[in-house]
Amino acid sequence: MAQTAEAPPSASQVEVKETGEGLISGGHLVAKALKAEGVDVVFTLCGGHIIDIYDGCVDEGIEVIDVRHEQVAAHAADGYARITGKPGCAVVTAGPGTTDAVTGVANALRAESPMLLIGGQGALSQHKMGSLQDLPHVDMMAPITKFSATVPDTARAADMVSMAFRECYHGAPGPSFLEIPRDVLDASVPLEKARIPKAGAYRASTRSAGDPEAIEKLADLLTQAEKPCILLGSQVWTTRGSDAAIDLVRGLNIPAYMNGAARGTLPPGDPHHYQLSRRYAFTNADLIIIVGTPFDFRMGYGKRLSAEATVVQIDLDYRTVGKNRDIDLGIVGDAGLVLSQVFAATTGRVSNGATGRKAWLEELRAVEEQSLGKRMARQLSNANPIDPYRLVHEINEFLTEDSIYIGDGGDIVTFSGQVVQPKSPGHWMDPGPLGTLGVGIPFVLAAKYARPDKEVVALFGDGAFSLTGWDFETLVRYNLPFVGIVGNNSSMNQIRYGQAVKYGEDRGRIGNTLGDVPYDQFAKILGGYGEEVRDPADIAPALQRARESGLPSLINVWVDPDVYAPGTMNQTMYK
Fold first, then answer.
1. Pair 67, 45: CB distance under 8 Å
2. % of the chain exceeding 70 in pLDDT
3. Three-state SS for 40?
4. Where are the alpha helices (DSSP H) in 37-69?
5. Count of domains forming the chain
6. Residue 565 C-beta-side C-alpha neighbours within 13 Å
7. Residue 21 confidence class, pLDDT cut points 50, 70, 90
8. How far apart, in Å, are the Cα atoms of 159 and each of 131, 155, 196, 541, 552?
9. Per mean pLDDT, which range of 116-130, 144-158, 160-174, 238-252 is the poorest?
10. Are residue 393 and residue 286 in the same domain, yes or no?
11. 489 and 412 in one domain?
């Protein structure tokens, strides 16, 4: 369990602190607004501009988890939102504190993750005078947030926090930013002058149903389709629509593919769970339904879908529907709610088409088995150096129904995307479409803090781990055990491959080669558990010992640096 913050004062003590002379400070107003939103933890790195928020959090029973880098705080807030379904919150100081958090905010934007970053600012009384750490934070954050503003007055502090959270849920979720000048935060105002929004009373429901006519049209398409398929994207998990998705695919006998946070919606072995035949399905299906995934680079900007197929797109954001590719039907709405509506619209019909799809599912299953057969020799390879396929195979075998899997890296995590299959909804975490390296340790922090009952397993590339790895110490300090694996090839191998292809092998190692770092020793130095693995037969026993250690752990697995994932070799940027 995490360390417990100092016990909050009693209700009577809080009353005295807040009202004293009938006054309340900006920091305490912020904390009250966070509490109203259901925030129970803030991730932070301390700074003089923001400490009154800490004081308010103690009184409101909100835990303050301090990290070693503000990027970690922002990523952790993002990860916390993904795991819990509640908004995450990070609090950082002005200037470099806020700029350090920019990457985490940008990642949350592309991943559609609701979080609030609160940044400090110099005093309003020193505006444009060159105060310590003064920067135009609001202007800098505006392009990568759904809302970016300054709190202009202490009485507005709680109101502005609630406003920022409201904007986090406008359309597809995303991050907001608030800066609070030091004198605004530290000042006190009469309690009656401050607007403190009531919990649950300052924003609408975030669930939006689909257009009834469009729902009926999709129901008609589904019942008539002979070869349908569905891609379940991250918004299925964001909207907590897993049960609705399961009901639809099982009830109508539809092969389902999953990406992003939707991985695990169907467990491995489910007759409707498909993974390796997606390209074949997209080429041969007569109806393709894309749920909560944009036509971005991961989808070949829509070009990977058959031109002859009927294409339907369901998304929370109107701007995403039909972007980059024409569609036959677009539905804007909550993924879970829309899928429930569609399933209900097919119920009671003479036929929903399910019985006629047996041959289609068998056709796809044969493709899956052929693909797996071609690769299984490498997944069981005893080669030394270790084939990355063997490593990710062992990780997949190691996972339980309670294991949350986190991938943080380039080439090594591309391998895992083909092999690792979470067994439950909400048990897969990756950066998302921004492709940010360094999310691993912050996501572990968020996931294990939010769900101490779950096992957390994280695979890092050695390059990715080095970006935020020092916060391994934070996991030790807060007693948050996890099983960590570093696929170590002493390279930024995804980039190395591209350089060798474009410029020749003699220039393949410019700017991408790392030292042979024994990350197992790093873990031990910081108080965790560490092991080194060079023989593939030792991977499984080492993982089990890490699990049994009850400590934050790193298993340093030396993998073959001259083996690349197919996804790496197929990237268009290298061609």
1. yes
2. 95
3. coil
4. 51-60
5. 3
6. 26
7. low
8. 26, 8, 6, 53, 39
9. 116-130
10. no
11. yes
Q: State which residues form the domain around 259.
A: 212-365
Contacts by residues 393-397 (CB-CB < 8 Å, ≥ 24 positions apart): 393/419, 394/536, 394/539, 394/540, 394/543, 395/419, 395/420, 395/457, 395/459, 395/485, 395/543, 396/420, 396/421, 397/540
Strand locations in 437-575 (E): 455-461, 483-488, 529-533, 553-558
Asked, for residue 311, whether it belongs to a domain, the answer is yes
Per DSSP, which regions of 238-286 are E strands? 256-258
What residues form DSSP beta bridges with 529? 553
Same domain, 337 and 217: yes
Label residue 69 left, alpha or beta by phi (over 0 means left) and psi (-120 to 50 means alpha). beta
pLDDT in tens, 505-538: 999 899 999 999 999 999 999 999 999 999 999 9
Q: Considering the domain boundaries, does residue 14 fall inside one? A: no
Task: Read off the tokens for 525.
Answer: 């130095």
Phi, psi of 77 (to 5 degrees): -65, -40
> Quick one: pLDDT at residue 297?
87
The pLDDT tens digits of the residues spanning 331-384 come to 999 999 999 999 999 998 878 889 999 999 999 999 999 999 999 999 999 999
Q: Which residues pair with 230 in a beta bridge?
A: 256, 289
Inform me whether the pLDDT recorded for 200 exceeds 90: no
Give me the DSSP letters along 251-290.
HHT--EEE-GGGTTSS-TT-TTB--TTHHHHHHH-SEEEE
DSSP state of 481: -
List the CATH number of the domain containing 114: 3.40.50.970
Total residue count of the chain as it appears in this document = 575
Distance, in Å, from the CA atom of 163 to the CA atom of 100, rounded to the nearest integer, reads 24
Task: Please give the pLDDT value at position 574.
Answer: 60
Residue 231 maps to which CATH number?
3.40.50.1220
* Same-domain status, 298 and 411: no
- Among 134, 163, 193, give the residue marking a domain's end: 193
Query: Which structure tokens are listed for 181?
Result: 């000048």
Strand order in the sheet with 63-66: 63-66, 41-44, 88-92, 115-121, 175-181, 147-150
Nearest in space to 177 (alpha carbons), one of 200, 130, 143: 143
User: Each residue of 388-417: pLDDT tens digit?
Assistant: 999 999 999 999 999 999 999 999 999 999
Which of 133, 166, 193 is the C-terminal boundary of a domain? 193
Residues 89 and 59 in one domain: yes
The answer to whether 549 touches 541, Cβ cutoff 8 Å, is no
Question: Which residue shows structure tokens 């909050």?
Answer: 8
Q: Are residues 178 and 242 in the same domain?
A: no
330 — phi, psi (to 5°)?
A: -120, 135
User: Quick check: is 202 in a domain?
Assistant: no
Query: What is the structure's pLDDT at 42?
Result: 98
Q: Please give the sequence-ordered ranges of beta strands (E in DSSP) within 76-114, or none if there are none.
A: 88-92
Say yes or no: 483 and 543 in one domain.
yes
Q: Could you tell me if residue 201 is inside a domain?
A: no
DSSP structural state of residue 410:
S
Residues 350, 449, single domain; the answer is: no
Q: What is the pLDDT of residues 103-158, one digit of tens each?
A: 999 999 999 999 999 999 978 777 776 777 788 899 999 999 999 999 999 999 99
Per-residue pLDDT tens digits for 439-491:
999 999 999 999 999 999 999 999 999 999 999 999 999 999 999 999 999 99
Taking the C-alpha atoms of residue 571 and residue 575, their distance in angstroms, rounded to an integer, is 7
> What are the helix (H) ranges across 304-357?
335-346
